[in-house]
Design a protein that fits this description.
Length: 141
């Protein structure tokens, strides 16, 4: 059996002013990771740059226009068809208002500590353990 082909997905970490991270809960009808929490983002269309894909996906899923600042890590996911590499970037919102798409049923601004208790998508759980678990929670004001 030939190994599965790799696919690239782009994701973004968006922080609010309290240091909370925007996460989205996939709809129950999703083919992969139904009802699980993840970062905004998604697949790259053919002949689309990864930054354009990420900006498009974030706008579609959240209503925010974003600027991308830097790379923040990777995670892997195995599906029935693909080996998906999730490239995670850090960015900030420059305009728009939060309005989630039908791909998701809920959103939350969560501290790194709160993220630990969420039922995360498999790839996001891997990413959390590698990169976010060590971030201290923002101090209460």
């Amino acid at each position: 059996m030939a190994p599965k082909t790799f696919a690239l997905s782009v994701r973004i970490v968006l922080f609010d002013q309290q240091g909370h991270i925007l996460v989205l809960k996939r709809s129950q009808s999703s083919k992969t990771n139904p009802g699980k929490w993840e970062l905004p983002g998604g697949k790259i269309n053919e002949s689309e740059s990864f930054d354009a894909a990420l900006q498009r996906e974030v706008l579609e899923e959240t209503g925010f226009q974003v600027v991308i600042h830097t790379a923040a890590g990777t995670a892997m996911q195995e599906t029935d068809e693909w080996r998906v590499v999730h490239l995670v970037m850090i960015g900030s919102m420059i305009s728009g208002g939060l309005a989630i798409s039908s791909e998701h049923e809920e959103y939350r601004w969560a501290s790194p500590l709160e993220l630990g208790g969420l039922d995360k998508a498999d790839w996001f759980d891997e990413y959390y353990k590698m990169y976010l678990q060590a971030i201290p929670a923002a101090p209460e004001k």
